[in-house]
Design goal:
13 helices; two-stranded antiparallel ribbon; Peroxisomal Thiolase, Chain A, domain 1; nine-stranded mixed sheet; homodimer; alpha/beta; about 375 residues
């Protein structure tokens, strides 16, 4: 078995108006990841991205000067599937289908097609986006990810006595991290709990503006290859101990109202069971956790599903400082999708690599294992 | 390494008007493939299909009663990527991401969204379909796959002195095979060369109606698992010796006008080199070839790219009877996409399995190795 690892990472700047095409952004991020690894486009023989990325592999092959892809895949489930790109790349490399696989995500999500508005674009009908059920939500006024997620959030908050004020702790922690990360859009801009409570309601009484991730323009890419190949490259490899996707029975994508218990994060539980079984690790073995934070409450759901605390205990766990830099499980030291940028989860994967290399803006000490979870996919990266 | 194999195949009837949804068709084909293998939906932990399949994995998980997917992927490139589903499933199984992967394709391509008409549906903008370049073709009157492929065909025919009358040999051979295959839409309906020459022009002077594959409603599925798991199942497994995709520099999907030499089938050549290198086999080692026949001329291009004959020699090679049941390389004994049905290439994969099991309607003697190629992906299946 050729153990797969991440040998290179790259990105563009994160902004609100990139001023250039998503194709240009993708090429910049990929070239940057290859430079980081010490590889050339002609070394690339596999690519993977989201079903809803607007760039075609054929265009990237032409634009970058790739000679031939032997593997090309797309991961469904929007940002929930972001860590799935790691799983696909790992599978391609370990099965010998390809040797150097690039994963990318490029989007002008703020300046072109905003997810946070009720504007339904052509993307709404893209296969694999899991948006077929939008038709069942829109007639009832549930028209954005905030409303869809808000319905589940309200059930959780009612059951466990959680308030929007509790959620502020997550936002404040992530903005504190972003404040000292020069790559973050909110670099130098920490917030207080009062700032959070004064921000406007997006879905009352669940999410305020500062509970929501950013809308961002930018691109992120990473390079997966074998451990053997990585030994000759420029960087300390981040080993992929395991990666998995999870699509349990009755799960939906974002509009996830159909399973029995709306407070139970089924995909997270399945991912946790799979990763812990395959790696022999448990929650106590991670020094950093990169947990998908499209909305503050998603951090609670991940903390509980992966066993960092019990069901319904996440608000207390966070309030006690456990996700801070000196807490039990430091959360997204880049600032996450709320503080750094919303490149659909992919910037949390590159941050995991930086933590392992020791090159992050806010490095955690002695990082051995990082958990990355994006809802419907998750992975363990190790030094 | 857990050698992957196909342990089950399934399908619906092939028709021009299925009378039911594509979701129903997909479920029927998948359930049929699982029954064939002796597996239950609860055994399935991976799925893969085309980017442009209209069914979501979450809907199939719910409808079939799957408990949890650990792998879910989509293959770009339309029918050209059909054998890529085999590559993805193989990668998932051999890397240990999943143990039982179902590949499916379901479409009401005749009764709902016909590819052969100039009607541009929402699908035209689906990511991964490679159709971004349609915008450069449509303004010049190139509005269907027949016109796009016709442009390349005309260059090939001019260079090698091939006429539409030559192409009739391919069509007649495939319809002869379909005529004795009860699953084929054209069962009992062979054609003569004169029938071909009397059929109407679709793209003059290149393709007549009988040079074009069918437009079909239906679904096909197959199940990939490890050799170890397959030993306990119901069928003789078809081993996947290797599978690959191919996206060479300057290649496009269908509208493939940008590479240097329009008569050179770059994807096929790359696939052939990869498969022959990885398996140690050559053209003389196959007893059956399932070659993507969306248009008759594509068979020529495959025969040359995979080395069954030299460049420009395919018309003579076919005229001499080499693709018939007793020829050097029997072609698609199911009748292919022209004679059996156009389930976007997937029915050629299930036929390869039947040839290996010895259960095909038109069985070839002593089949050891079958080549399956669909343009931008290819595989070797073996007994």
């Amino acid at each position: 078995m050729a153990d797969a690892c991440i040998a290179g990472i790259g990105q563009t700047e994160f902004s609100k108006n990139s001023g250039r095409s998503e194709l240009t952004l993708a090429c910049e991020a990929i070239q940057s990841a290859l430079d980081d690894a010490g590889l050339a486009p002609s070394d690339v023989d596999g690519m993977t991205t989201f079903t809803i990325d607007n760039n075609e592999d054929v265009d990237l092959v032409r634009s970058l000067g790739i000679e031939n892809l032997r593997f090309s895949s797309r991961v469904p489930h929007g940002g929930g599937g972001s860590t799935g790109t790691l799983a696909h790349a790992m599978a391609a490399v370990e099965s010998g289908l390809a040797n150097v696989v690039v994963a990318w995500r490029a989007m002008n999500e703020r300046s072109e097609a905003r997810f946070g508005t009720a504007h339904m674009t052509a993307n709404s009908n893209v296969r694999g986006a899991g948006t077929g059920f939008i038709e069942w939500s829109v007639p009832f006024g549930a028209v954005t990810p905030a409303t869809w997620t808000g319905i589940q959030a309200q059930r959780y908050m009612a059951r466990y006595g959680v308030t929007n004020e509790d959620l502020a702790d997550v936002s404040v922690a992530l903005r504190a991290a972003a404040a000292s990360n020069p790559r973050a859009w909110f670099y130098g801009k920490p917030i207080t709990k009062a700032d959070h409570q004064e921000s406007r309601w997006i879905v009352e009484p669940v999410f305020r503006l500062l509970d929501c991730c950013q809308e961002s323009d930018g691109a992120v890419a990473f390079v997966v290859t074998t451990a053997e190949r990585a030994r000759d490259l420029k960087q300390i490899p981040a080993r992929i101990l395991h990666a998995t996707q999870s699509v349990p029975f009755e799960t939906e994508v974002v509009t996830n109202f159909y399973h029995q218990d709306l407070t139970s994060f089924e995909s997270g539980k399945k991912s946790a069971a799979e990763l812990y079984d395959r790696t022999g690790l448990g929650p106590e073995d991670f020094q950093v956790a990169m947990l998908y934070d499209h909305f503050t409450i998603a951090v609670y759901w991940h903390l509980e599903a992966f066993g960092f605390c019990g069901l319904g205990e996440a608000a207390d766990f966070v309030r006690e400082g456990n996700i801070g830099p000196n807490g039990k499980i430091p959360l997204s030291p880049n600032g996450g999708l709320i503080g750094e940028a919303y490149i659909h989860g992919m910037n949390n994967i590159t941050e995991a690599v930086r933590q392992i290399r020791g090159t992050a803006a806010n490095p955690v000490d002695a990082v051995q294992n990082v958990l990355v979870s994006s809802g419907m996919s998750a992975a363990v990266l190790s030094r």
